[in-house]
Every structure is written in structure tokens, then in C-alpha cells.
Amino acid sequence: MNQIDIITRKRDGQELSADELQFLISQYVSGNIPDYQISAFLMAVYFNGMTPVETATFTRLMRDSGTVLNHSAVDGFKSDKHSTGGVGDKVSLILAPLVASAGVIVPMISGRGLAHTGGTLDKLEAIPGFRTNLDLDELEPQLNAIGVVMIGQTEDLCPADKKIYALRDATATVNSIPLITASILSKKLAEGIDSLVLDVKAGSGAIFEDKEKAWELAKMLTATADNFGLKTTAILTSMEQPLGRAVGNWLETREAIDTLRGNGPADLLDITLILSAQMLLHSGKVDSISAGMALLEEKIASGEAFDKFLQIVKWHGGDTAMVEKPDAYPTAKCSADIVAQSDGHVAEINCREIGRTAMALGAGRTSVEEDVDYTSGIMLRKKVGDAVRKGEPLATAYSNDADVLSTCQQRIEQAFKISSTQVARPPLIFSRIEAGVEQRWDADARNFV
Ligand code: URA
């Protein structure tokens, strides 16, 4: 077999066999095929796609390129959630302890921030001492003790995806439905879970701006997961404006802590409750999303969800005092309010631009090796639909670099569109896709119908 023939066949739109895909992946991981040939293959997939069978095979081969975890020594139903990525998306920090406090085991593996989106690992590591790089043999004792771990992808898990994802990032081939499907599912299938909830986002801050494309991704993800017998539900949500008010590592962790203590913003709480309730529904602990949401609300009100978060922080070596008294956390050296130039209503917040500006303020990185600044970022003071008076703050920007802060202020101001007429609050949850069936979200019934 040779890689040029395989690349040629994919370039010409043909379906590759399992043997051909296996050859490409194994030879690439072992260093026998150079980056430039895999780049050509990825670009051919970007333009010509993959059939459902190819996508499932590619997923399986990526999963099997490393260790596949098995938590059978841990009693209980194991579930995880994955988001296709967004701005201000700190849901995992709230969802993991919340779901674990309701008795479902959460062996969560998350990523770092890249491009305009943040990453769960950076937000957790904003807590002094918090270790996300646990050894695989540390997982089981922790899962047995507290029912939840929150770690990053290790060297042993899906090494093929690690290498291919870095290459996709550098060759403009991230936005391909079969490649995203294989990348996400290979890692989730290697986690040893019984079920998966996918938050598939559409909008200006999402991987796909276009709703149709996001729907297509959700369908491909659920259909491929079904092939592996993994109970999977995709929930389609909006990423037209940042989630909650905080964008930036510690700012988001702080907002997650507030939410776990019952003081979170409504949109963040809502989406977290729905995704978490879907995990409880998978486990059989509840028989509807609305019943799951009610149970989870009790876990927040009773303090059990916050206590579970403290347990997580303790087990990962983090400073629990900082979580209990988050006002003690250091703040960025400089901050500035961005104020409205006219009276009106917030009609639009360019989500991608807010994400990019938060990164420029210091919250992000341009390559995986770079450090992030935990205290920089943006707090939104107004969201879409809010009324605003001239001179009122739209947002506050934080940075440790005064020059960067002054260049970012105008970008934030321009990301807001103010309308002279009233603007309706946009929907956050659209629908759910499961076993090929789509149901829309009914906010009044608190259920998919
Ligand atoms: N997240 C992943 O893990 N992989 C992708 O390809 C896109 C988002």
C-alpha cells in the first residue's frame, strides 16, 4: 500500500477501505508518513467528505491508536458531556460536580483553549494548585471516592487525534464534519463511559456559524456514536452571544462558583441544567428532562453541588480556600469600562470577536504550548435584549498590559450593536437529536417535544 495512491483516491472522491485508513493513521503516528502528505489527505477529506462507514472506521482507528479506558471496577452509570466549543462556555465546571452530586459517575476529559474559544482545563488550572494531568491509575480511586474526575487528554489517549488535530489547526481543515466527528468521538469512546451528551453549538462564536451545518454535525455525531452502541444525545444550542457574562479563565471559574452557589446568570444555569438533566435521563435516575432539572436545582439549593466541586478541587490538589472565598483571588492590574455611545437596546454581540478580544487581552494562546493569563478577560454588563443608556457600561475589560487593554477597548465597543428599538432575547436551546429523531425545546414545559 502507498500513501500517494490513497491520497489520490480521496482527492478523486472515492471511499477508502478500513485497511487504507489504518495504513495512513498507523504510519503517520509512527512517523513514517510526513505532515505534508497527511495535510493533503485532510484537505481532500475537507472537500470530498467521508461516507458514514468511512467516518465510523476513522473514529474507531483513532480511538484504538491509544489506551481505551475501562472503568468497570467503578460502580455506577458513567456519563460525560462534550461541547463543540464556544465563548464563555464554562458549563463543564458546573455540570461535572452537579451531575456527580446526583449520583452519576462523571469521568470527564476536557481540552485547552485555542483560537477564540476557552478551554475547561485552563479554567480549572486558574485555581491555584489544581492538577488536570492525573495519571490514569489515579482515576479509579478518585471515581470510587467522589464519583468525578476532570482531566486533560493524556499522551496515551487517542495519540492519532492529538497529532492530526494539531495539523488540522495549522492547515485550515478543522471545519470538516467527518474529521470533527472522528476527533470528538474517538476521545469520548476511549473514556470508558456509558453515555454521552453533546452540546452542538451554532452561531457567530461556534465552530459552525450556520445552523444547517451544526445540525448536520449533530446528526453525524449521533449516528456515528450509535454505531458503537454508545447512548448519545446531541442538544443544539445557540452561540450567538457569549454564555453568561464572564469570558476569560478565572472570571469564568468565578462565575461557575457563583452558579454552583445559586447565584449564576439565567442563561448559563438553564443550559447547564438541561445538559445535566439529559445525563440523568440517560442513567435512568429520572424519567424526563423537567424532573432532572428539578432534582438538580435541589442539589444546588442544598449546597451539595458546591460541596462536590470543593471535593473535586481538593482531590486535584487545588486551593479550596480560594473557591470558598473567591474575592481573595488577585485581579488583573488594569481594567476599563466600555460604555454605550447612545441610548437603546443591545441587538447583537459579535461572539467570535468578544472571544478573540478576550484572548488578545491575555486570556488565550495562539499555540498549545503558550501559557495563559488567568486574570484577563471581559465581563459583559449587558446582553442581547437589554436596554442601555448612553454612558452605561456594556462590558468591563481586564488585562495585565495597559497598552493591550487600550487597543482592545474599541474592539469590544464595536462588537456591540445598539438598536433604537426593543430587541427580543434570542433563544438559547433549539432542539435535541437522538437516534435520528429531532425534538424541539419547549421552555414552558421544560422538555423536548
Ligand atoms: N473538538 C475536538 O475535539 N475536535 C474537533 O475536531 C473539533 C472540536
Relevant terms:
single chain, about 450 residues, alpha+beta, 6-stranded mixed beta sheet, 4-stranded antiparallel beta sheet, 17 helices, about 45% helix, about 15% strand, globular, binds uracil
Explain what you see.
By secondary structure, the chain is α+β, with helices and mostly antiparallel strands. Helices cover 45% and strands 17% of the residues. It has helices at residues 3-11, 18-29, 35-48, 52-63, 91-101, 120-125, 136-146, 159-170, 177-189, 211-227, 249-260, 266-283, 289-301, 304-315, 320-324, 351-363, 402-415; strands spanning 79-83, 106-110, 148-152, 195-202, 231-238, 246-247, 334-339, 344-349, 377-380, 387-388, 393-399, 416-419, 429-434, 437-442, 447-448. A six-stranded mixed sheet has the order 1-4-5-13-14-15, sandwiched between helices. The protein has a four-stranded antiparallel sheet with strand order 6-9-11-7, with helices on both faces. Strand 13 (429-434) and strand 14 form a beta hairpin. Helix 1 runs parallel beside helix 3 (35-48), helix 5 (91-101) crosses helix 12 (266-283) and helix 12 crosses helix 13 (289-301). The mean pLDDT is 96. Uracil is lined by residues 84-85, 165, 174, 179-180, 183-184.
Which strand order do you get reading across the main beta sheet?
A: 1-4-5-13-14-15
The number of E-state strands comes to: 15
Secondary structure tally, helices? 17
- In terms of per-residue confidence, which ranges show pLDDT below 50 for 5 or more consecutive residues? none
Taken as a percent bin, the fraction of beta residues is: 15-25%
Amino- and carboxy-terminal Cα gap: 50 Å
Give the integer mean of the pLDDT values.
96
Gyration radius from CA atoms, angstroms: 22 Å
Q: Summarize the biggest pleated sheet.
A: 6 strands, mixed
